[in-house]
Design brief:
The protein has 263 residues and is an alpha/beta fold. It has one domain: Rossmann fold, CATH 3.40.50.720. It has 10 helices and 9 strands. The strands form 2 sheets. The chain has a 7-stranded parallel β-sheet, with helices on both faces. Strands 7-8 form a two-stranded parallel ribbon. β4, α4 and β5 form a beta-alpha-beta unit. It is globular, with a radius of gyration of 18 Å. It starts with a strand and ends with a helix.
Protein backbone atom coordinates (compact mmCIF):
# COMPACT_ATOMS: atom_id res chain seq x y z
CA UNK A 1 0.00 0.00 0.00
CA UNK A 2 1.12 3.53 -0.72
CA UNK A 3 2.21 5.36 2.41
CA UNK A 4 0.38 8.52 3.40
CA UNK A 5 2.12 11.81 2.63
CA UNK A 6 2.76 14.52 5.21
CA UNK A 7 3.56 18.09 4.12
CA UNK A 8 5.51 20.10 6.70
CA UNK A 9 6.21 23.80 6.18
CA UNK A 10 9.12 25.49 7.91
CA UNK A 11 10.74 22.06 8.11
CA UNK A 12 14.39 23.10 8.02
CA UNK A 13 14.68 23.66 11.79
CA UNK A 14 12.87 23.82 15.13
CA UNK A 15 9.34 22.51 15.54
CA UNK A 16 9.03 21.81 11.81
CA UNK A 17 12.10 19.57 11.72
CA UNK A 18 10.94 17.74 14.85
CA UNK A 19 7.51 17.22 13.30
CA UNK A 20 9.19 15.76 10.20
CA UNK A 21 11.20 13.31 12.32
CA UNK A 22 8.12 12.44 14.39
CA UNK A 23 6.07 11.65 11.29
CA UNK A 24 8.88 9.68 9.67
CA UNK A 25 8.98 7.34 12.68
CA UNK A 26 5.27 6.71 12.05
CA UNK A 27 5.85 5.68 8.46
CA UNK A 28 4.66 8.78 6.61
CA UNK A 29 6.29 9.85 3.37
CA UNK A 30 7.29 13.50 3.65
CA UNK A 31 7.26 16.69 1.63
CA UNK A 32 9.48 19.17 3.44
CA UNK A 33 9.50 22.82 2.57
CA UNK A 34 11.36 25.94 3.67
CA UNK A 35 13.71 28.39 2.02
CA UNK A 36 17.02 26.77 3.06
CA UNK A 37 17.69 24.11 0.44
CA UNK A 38 20.82 22.65 2.07
CA UNK A 39 19.08 21.97 5.38
CA UNK A 40 15.99 20.54 3.71
CA UNK A 41 18.00 18.16 1.56
CA UNK A 42 20.09 17.04 4.52
CA UNK A 43 16.96 16.35 6.59
CA UNK A 44 15.25 14.55 3.71
CA UNK A 45 18.30 12.32 3.23
CA UNK A 46 18.48 11.62 6.97
CA UNK A 47 14.83 10.59 7.20
CA UNK A 48 14.86 8.50 4.03
CA UNK A 49 17.94 6.58 5.17
CA UNK A 50 16.85 6.23 8.78
CA UNK A 51 13.19 5.30 8.36
CA UNK A 52 12.79 3.92 4.84
CA UNK A 53 10.31 6.61 3.84
CA UNK A 54 10.37 8.87 0.79
CA UNK A 55 11.24 12.45 1.72
CA UNK A 56 10.99 15.21 -0.87
CA UNK A 57 12.75 18.54 -0.25
CA UNK A 58 10.95 21.51 -1.84
CA UNK A 59 12.59 24.91 -1.40
CA UNK A 60 9.86 27.56 -1.75
CA UNK A 61 9.38 31.05 -0.32
CA UNK A 62 5.89 30.87 1.20
CA UNK A 63 6.02 34.57 2.09
CA UNK A 64 5.23 35.37 -1.55
CA UNK A 65 1.70 35.26 -3.04
CA UNK A 66 2.57 32.53 -5.56
CA UNK A 67 4.49 30.44 -3.01
CA UNK A 68 1.63 28.16 -1.85
CA UNK A 69 0.55 27.17 -5.36
CA UNK A 70 4.17 26.66 -6.42
CA UNK A 71 4.57 24.28 -3.50
CA UNK A 72 1.39 22.36 -4.31
CA UNK A 73 2.37 22.06 -7.97
CA UNK A 74 5.63 20.39 -6.94
CA UNK A 75 4.06 17.79 -4.68
CA UNK A 76 4.22 14.28 -6.07
CA UNK A 77 0.65 13.66 -4.86
CA UNK A 78 -1.88 15.43 -2.60
CA UNK A 79 -0.86 15.49 1.05
CA UNK A 80 -2.83 13.51 3.63
CA UNK A 81 -1.29 15.43 6.53
CA UNK A 82 -0.55 19.17 6.62
CA UNK A 83 1.59 20.78 9.29
CA UNK A 84 1.45 24.56 8.89
CA UNK A 85 4.50 25.53 10.89
CA UNK A 86 6.44 28.13 8.87
CA UNK A 87 6.77 31.44 10.65
CA UNK A 88 8.98 33.97 12.38
CA UNK A 89 8.73 37.06 14.55
CA UNK A 90 9.11 40.65 13.34
CA UNK A 91 10.29 42.63 16.37
CA UNK A 92 9.96 46.35 16.79
CA UNK A 93 7.12 48.82 16.90
CA UNK A 94 4.62 48.65 14.05
CA UNK A 95 5.29 52.13 12.62
CA UNK A 96 9.07 51.63 12.55
CA UNK A 97 8.94 48.55 10.37
CA UNK A 98 8.57 48.47 6.60
CA UNK A 99 5.10 47.59 5.33
CA UNK A 100 6.66 45.13 2.87
CA UNK A 101 7.99 43.17 5.86
CA UNK A 102 4.60 43.17 7.59
CA UNK A 103 2.91 42.11 4.37
CA UNK A 104 5.30 39.18 3.98
CA UNK A 105 4.58 38.17 7.57
CA UNK A 106 0.84 38.16 6.88
CA UNK A 107 1.33 36.14 3.71
CA UNK A 108 3.52 33.50 5.35
CA UNK A 109 1.68 33.05 8.63
CA UNK A 110 -1.95 33.84 7.81
CA UNK A 111 -2.72 33.54 4.08
CA UNK A 112 -0.42 30.62 3.23
CA UNK A 113 -1.74 28.24 5.96
CA UNK A 114 -5.33 29.01 4.97
CA UNK A 115 -4.62 28.55 1.27
CA UNK A 116 -2.81 25.24 1.74
CA UNK A 117 -5.61 23.90 3.93
CA UNK A 118 -8.26 25.12 1.49
CA UNK A 119 -6.64 23.43 -1.49
CA UNK A 120 -5.73 20.15 0.21
CA UNK A 121 -8.99 19.73 2.13
CA UNK A 122 -11.23 18.42 -0.71
CA UNK A 123 -9.00 15.39 -1.33
CA UNK A 124 -8.73 14.72 2.41
CA UNK A 125 -12.51 14.83 2.82
CA UNK A 126 -13.06 12.65 -0.26
CA UNK A 127 -10.89 9.88 1.17
CA UNK A 128 -12.22 10.51 4.69
CA UNK A 129 -8.76 10.90 6.15
CA UNK A 130 -6.79 14.05 6.85
CA UNK A 131 -4.76 15.66 9.61
CA UNK A 132 -4.09 19.41 9.79
CA UNK A 133 -1.91 20.86 12.53
CA UNK A 134 -1.73 24.65 12.50
CA UNK A 135 1.13 25.81 14.71
CA UNK A 136 -0.18 28.86 16.56
CA UNK A 137 1.21 30.18 19.85
CA UNK A 138 0.43 30.76 23.49
CA UNK A 139 0.57 34.43 22.46
CA UNK A 140 -2.80 33.92 20.75
CA UNK A 141 -4.39 33.16 24.13
CA UNK A 142 -2.55 35.77 26.21
CA UNK A 143 -3.05 39.54 26.48
CA UNK A 144 -1.58 41.65 23.69
CA UNK A 145 1.89 43.12 24.10
CA UNK A 146 3.80 45.96 22.48
CA UNK A 147 6.18 44.94 19.70
CA UNK A 148 5.75 41.97 17.36
CA UNK A 149 2.45 43.75 16.69
CA UNK A 150 0.94 41.36 14.15
CA UNK A 151 2.36 38.13 15.60
CA UNK A 152 -0.25 37.48 18.30
CA UNK A 153 -3.01 38.81 16.04
CA UNK A 154 -2.07 36.33 13.30
CA UNK A 155 -1.81 33.47 15.78
CA UNK A 156 -5.27 34.37 17.13
CA UNK A 157 -6.58 34.10 13.58
CA UNK A 158 -4.91 30.70 13.25
CA UNK A 159 -6.61 29.48 16.44
CA UNK A 160 -10.08 30.65 15.39
CA UNK A 161 -9.59 29.32 11.87
CA UNK A 162 -8.54 25.94 13.25
CA UNK A 163 -11.50 25.74 15.61
CA UNK A 164 -13.99 26.58 12.87
CA UNK A 165 -12.40 24.18 10.42
CA UNK A 166 -12.46 21.48 13.09
CA UNK A 167 -16.22 21.90 13.39
CA UNK A 168 -16.69 21.74 9.61
CA UNK A 169 -14.57 18.63 9.06
CA UNK A 170 -14.82 16.53 12.21
CA UNK A 171 -17.46 14.20 10.70
CA UNK A 172 -15.52 13.72 7.46
CA UNK A 173 -12.42 12.02 8.84
CA UNK A 174 -10.37 15.23 8.80
CA UNK A 175 -8.92 16.30 12.14
CA UNK A 176 -7.80 19.90 12.70
CA UNK A 177 -5.80 21.18 15.68
CA UNK A 178 -4.26 24.52 16.60
CA UNK A 179 -1.04 23.84 18.52
CA UNK A 180 -0.20 26.69 20.91
CA UNK A 181 3.31 26.31 22.33
CA UNK A 182 4.88 28.85 24.62
CA UNK A 183 8.61 29.51 24.82
CA UNK A 184 10.28 26.62 22.97
CA UNK A 185 13.96 25.89 22.46
CA UNK A 186 14.32 26.54 18.71
CA UNK A 187 16.07 29.12 16.47
CA UNK A 188 13.04 31.44 16.60
CA UNK A 189 14.60 34.11 18.83
CA UNK A 190 18.03 33.79 17.21
CA UNK A 191 16.54 34.64 13.81
CA UNK A 192 14.76 37.79 15.00
CA UNK A 193 17.65 39.00 17.15
CA UNK A 194 15.97 38.79 20.57
CA UNK A 195 17.72 35.67 21.97
CA UNK A 196 19.83 37.39 24.65
CA UNK A 197 17.01 39.59 25.93
CA UNK A 198 14.36 36.88 25.94
CA UNK A 199 16.63 34.33 27.59
CA UNK A 200 17.56 36.77 30.34
CA UNK A 201 13.94 37.82 30.94
CA UNK A 202 12.28 34.39 30.88
CA UNK A 203 12.67 31.86 33.71
CA UNK A 204 13.70 28.32 32.72
CA UNK A 205 10.43 26.80 33.94
CA UNK A 206 8.62 28.57 31.09
CA UNK A 207 10.68 26.85 28.38
CA UNK A 208 9.98 23.52 26.66
CA UNK A 209 11.97 21.39 24.25
CA UNK A 210 10.45 21.02 20.79
CA UNK A 211 10.02 17.24 21.06
CA UNK A 212 7.30 17.20 23.78
CA UNK A 213 5.55 20.09 22.01
CA UNK A 214 5.33 18.05 18.81
CA UNK A 215 4.30 14.87 20.64
CA UNK A 216 1.46 16.75 22.37
CA UNK A 217 0.36 18.31 19.09
CA UNK A 218 0.24 14.99 17.27
CA UNK A 219 -1.68 13.30 20.09
CA UNK A 220 -4.18 16.15 19.98
CA UNK A 221 -4.80 15.98 16.23
CA UNK A 222 -5.11 12.20 16.31
CA UNK A 223 -7.72 12.61 19.06
CA UNK A 224 -9.42 15.36 17.00
CA UNK A 225 -9.03 18.04 19.66
CA UNK A 226 -9.25 21.56 18.16
CA UNK A 227 -6.81 23.20 20.58
CA UNK A 228 -3.60 21.97 22.19
CA UNK A 229 -1.60 23.93 24.75
CA UNK A 230 1.42 21.75 25.59
CA UNK A 231 3.00 21.72 29.03
CA UNK A 232 1.66 22.42 32.50
CA UNK A 233 3.22 25.89 32.71
CA UNK A 234 1.65 26.94 29.41
CA UNK A 235 -1.74 25.50 30.38
CA UNK A 236 -1.59 27.46 33.64
CA UNK A 237 -0.65 30.71 31.91
CA UNK A 238 -3.44 30.27 29.35
CA UNK A 239 -6.00 29.64 32.10
CA UNK A 240 -4.86 32.62 34.16
CA UNK A 241 -4.95 34.86 31.08
CA UNK A 242 -8.64 34.07 30.63
CA UNK A 243 -9.43 35.03 34.24
CA UNK A 244 -7.65 38.39 34.44
CA UNK A 245 -9.78 41.42 33.48
CA UNK A 246 -8.73 42.73 30.08
CA UNK A 247 -7.75 46.18 31.29
CA UNK A 248 -5.54 44.80 34.05
CA UNK A 249 -4.00 42.28 31.67
CA UNK A 250 -3.06 45.03 29.21
CA UNK A 251 -1.46 47.07 32.00
CA UNK A 252 0.57 44.07 33.10
CA UNK A 253 1.76 43.45 29.56
CA UNK A 254 2.57 47.14 29.10
CA UNK A 255 4.83 47.00 32.15
CA UNK A 256 6.62 43.88 30.89
CA UNK A 257 6.82 44.42 27.14
CA UNK A 258 10.16 46.24 27.27
CA UNK A 259 11.78 43.05 28.59
CA UNK A 260 10.99 41.12 25.43
CA UNK A 261 10.94 43.81 22.72
CA UNK A 262 14.00 44.76 20.69
CA UNK A 263 13.07 48.48 20.67
Amino acid sequence: MERKLALVTGASAGIGAVFARHLATRGFDLALTARRTDRLEALAAELSAGHGVRAQAIAVDLATPDGPQTLLDRLERPADVLVNNAGYGLPGSFARTAWADQQALLQLMAITPCELAHKLLPAMAAQRYGRIVNVASLAALAPSAAGHTLYAAIKSLVVKFSESLHLETRRHGVHVTALCPGFTYTEFHDVNGTRARVSAATPKWMWMAAEPVVEAGWRAVEANRPLCVPGLANKTLAAVSRLIPERLALEIMASQSHRLSRD
